[in-house]
């Protein structure tokens, strides 16, 4: 979901995240006998853990979970040629049909864009492209390119018509990167539950949901990769983190990353990372991105209307801001 990389770049990337993934997997396996499988999908490392199931059953269940994750990846990827999103982004037609599942997620995104007053906006793909975050070597676009990309971006260029088809301006393009991982995690957990798993965890590059049992989930420190900023047990709810530390480049001492403020067309400035706890991971994922764009002051104010959603914001100075109920989940 996150990038079209050169073959060598891709190999290095996969090796690196596999190394990290296996390390984490081994740690967990030693600690509590969870069975773990990791695979690359949705542009990141996916990790599934199951406890209390015998090895043969677990193998079979893991196959089903990863098949579902790959299906979601194919459905929502910006890069899978001839997939529905690629088609939507690469046609000059202004009235386009999409599969029901894509339409359903777009309707959810429509609600989220209104609720967040445009901070969350999947029609940012022209900006993602202009900044090169769809490829291997992102860089700052010149002013004219940036202005054109900002004008072409925005949900106001897209409308869902009565008959369920998508009406869009020719240059409008969609990227589900801020919500697809959370959605895939929810689908994967549904598969786990369909097998009556007592305890399971799905982690898609930091978007996590558990079912049953007690799980310690570490939130990475945004400036110190080997350290944890916090540890939580979300008790069957979901947690998602958006950060400026995984996809970024530096130029003239400024960090430019992949979460854009649609209003300016520039990477959002006020946070290093935002973690959100919600009932489902799709909502947690989308709101983590939205609050990241809003910044700590507006983000905390926005979250007041959702008393059962919790957040940890680490601002640009490295200071923590938490919702009142976050402490109920935090163990460290
Ligand atoms: P991560 O992928 O690191 O978990 P996010 O969930 O915040 O981070 O998603 C970031 C991705 O979402 C970007 O790579 C881009 O494709 C897309 N995106 C960037 N800015 C926005 C935004 N304001 N609203 C919705 N999607 C965005
Ligand atoms: Mg997100």
Please give a structural write-up.
The protein has about 325 residues and is α+β, with helices and mostly antiparallel strands. It has a domain at about 85-170: T-fold (Orthogonal Bundle), CATH 1.10.3980.10. It is about 35% helix and about 25% strand. It contains 9 helices and 17 strands. It has helices spanning about 5-30, 55-75, 85-90, 100-115, 125-130, 145-150, 180-195, 280-295, 295-305, and strands at about 35-40, 45-50, 95, 160, 165-170, 200-205, 205-210, 215-220, 230, 240-245, 250, 255, 260, 265, 270-280, 310-315, 320. Strand 11 (about 250) and strand 12 form a beta hairpin. Helix 8 (about 280-295) packs across helix 9. Bound molecules: adenosine-5'-diphosphate (ADP) and magnesium ion.
Write a concise keyword list for the protein shown above.
alpha+beta; eight-stranded antiparallel beta sheet; 17 strands; disordered N terminus; binds adenosine-5'-diphosphate
Widest β-sheet, arrangement of strands: 1-2-6-7-10-15-16-17
CATH superfamily of the domain at 84-168: ApbE-like superfamily
Output mean pLDDT: 92
Percent of residues in β-strands: 15-25%
Give the distinct bound molecules: adenosine-5'-diphosphate, magnesium ion
List how many beta strands DSSP finds: 17
Pick out the low-confidence regions.
Answer: 1-12, 14-31
- Portion in helices: 25-40%
* Structural class computed from helices and strand pairing: alpha+beta
- Tally the helices: what do you get? 9
Mind telling me which CATH architecture of the domain at 84-168 this is? Orthogonal Bundle
> How does the overall form come out from the CA principal axes?
globular
Reported for the largest beta sheet, the result is: 8 strands, antiparallel
- CATH topology annotation of the domain at 84-168: T-fold
CA(first)-CA(last) distance = 32 Å
CATH class of the domain at 84-168: Mainly Alpha
